[in-house]
Amino acid sequence: MTEFLRTDDLCVTEFFRFDELTWPEVAALPRDLPLVLPLGTDYPQPLIAESLSNPARIGLLPAFPFGWRGSGLEVSEPLLAAYIKNLLDSLRDDGFSQVFALTPKGIDLNLGAAQLRISPRGTAREQLPLDTEKSKVILLPIGHTEQHSHHLPLSVDTISIEAVAQGTANAVPEQAFCLPVMPYGVSTHRASFAATMNAGGRAFEDFWLDVVRVLSERGFDRFYLLSGHGGNSSFLVNVVKYAGERQRRIFCATAFLYLSGPQGVAALEKYRESKIGGMGHACELETSFMLHLRSDLVHMERVRDDIDFVTTPSYYMDWVEGGALVANPPWDDDSVYGAYGAGSLATNEKGRLWLEAAIAEKVQHVAEIHQQQRIREERRAAGFGLWGKQAT
SS3 of 167, please? Predict the structure, then answer.
């Protein structure tokens, strides 16, 4: 993720990364401590502190990567504002009384006193993506900022899907281009444990639909929405449904997380030690990913396995959720510590192997998206079915 904190700022206020904390650490924070969600990066810390009357500490949330004028990829401002407002309300629901969006000057999200306006050091970004990438599948990785039990930070989903998506783009640079990772998604289980953000399902869908619209109007026609957070999945299905209806000449796809197809599941089964129920959240898989990608943020001495999920034949929890029933009962019913699974069984080596398998799975998906769009465009050009009887 893009570096935000800089050590060359002369500032007496201590800045810390909110998303590097665990949920019990967030639960212990003073509720009047200022928390700031920046749009973009590279804001002068002394000016941030001064705008908040130089408090002793300020928590910085992950930077929102794009969406506003000057970000390189602009969406409808009311849709951006709804997304940001819901995220700030998540913090207020957790009891924090001083929560702010930090934006460049000239941006008005109608947040009143909850919006700080400071000019970043850098100039406006170049267009995202460049028009030279139009022949590629545009990867849109979406993580989340939410609790991951006692041993993992809030940033697990973002770090994981960024590694998968960027690894995919690096593996097939002629076929795929990766946008900056979005660190905020949807959680419908906020009440159970502190520090879980929520963009709101409707605002989330509207924002990503507009991202696809903007890019499709620029001539991009292949999109892959990659999620590192299970709570995003049903909403991303809605996005691709609506996008396909509204922009009929594109191919927009998503998938349930990663390692969810036949090859991915085979890789999970090959190396996992936990039984069914051992992989879901802050589990053997996610903890292994983090041991491989950011071991400095993992506290294995704090691991508490949560594997007592209420299981029936048609409803049970594992990485690829099983059973015919779809439901969303309170996490409190199944998890004592904020996990679903056996994080104690995680290793760095499993994380390396599973990341390689996840990237291979996504590389295959990229190839299929290209194939789908190519065949469909050939049919359209040939007047297949109704395409030969109506304007395109």
Answer: helix
